[in-house]
Amino acid sequence: MSDLGDWFRSIPLITRYWFAGSIAVPLVGKLGLVSPVNLFLWPDAFIHRFQIWRPITATFFFPVGPGTGFLYLVNLYFLYQYSSRLETGAFDGRPADYMFMLLFNWICIVVSFCSSSNFENLLMIPLIMSVLYVWAQLNRDMIVSFWFGTRFKACYLPWVILGFNYIIGGSVINELIGNLVGHLYFFLMFKYPMDLGGRNFLSTPQFLYRWLPNRRGGVSGFGIPPASMRRAAEDQQGGGRHNWGQGFRLGDQ
């Protein structure tokens, strides 16, 4: 048990709580301590009956059963792997910026689900996929390995997983929404201001910095680097694309 505890404490802070919640809430529903009906996001109940807990519980809940258990475990693995890599990689020392990314993606997903009654009512997979999409774009040229030894660039990983989840789960709505939301965040935070020289539309609120202060080495206001740094980077790279960071192989610890 000590080894398990050490492993759990080694998970980055935000990912640790997200991972724990994604185990605890489905377990509560599985044991019948709370009816799963109360854990879904029903737009009518959320908007008109003011059941404001539903977007939160729907983020952590997943109906685990004989037909969904494998899909749940696969996405729990993706949560642990890619949230940890983002939190300790591109967002290292900047927990407030990482929390802001999660909140932005979560709000966009909630709005998407509430705007149409045709969408499924669980937010776990879309939020995980949005994080995975951002990681894949920040490491887009890294070669990753997937099942059966297939190898491809990381930028294609979200779409490969979309197809994979369709095969084992039968739906792509959750994955598609997650990819689109992840693309929106990546475009507004990185692509548009850095590569296209546009305005920075996203910035982390100051209250998050007070709640989750930057650790040593972190830089507040993650997004657009100072102009002098941008010019130096362009000179070093011949005016090319921004170097988004180091990648990892799928499944590496």
Automatic annotation (TrEMBL):
Q: Name one Pfam family in it.
A: DER1
Ordered alphabetically, the record's keywords are:
Endoplasmic reticulum, Membrane, Transmembrane, Transmembrane helix
Membrane topology, as annotated, equals:
Multi-pass membrane protein
Segments for region (Disordered) = 233-253
Q: Which residues cross the membrane?
A: 17-41, 53-78, 98-115, 122-138, 166-190
Free-text function comment from the UniProt entry: Functional component of endoplasmic reticulum-associated degradation (ERAD) for misfolded lumenal proteins. May act by forming a channel that allows the retrotranslocation of misfolded proteins into the cytosol where they are ubiquitinated and degraded by the proteasome.
Protein name (database record): Derlin
Naturally occurring in which organism (per UniProt): Xiphorhynchus elegans (elegant woodcreeper)
Gene label: Derl1
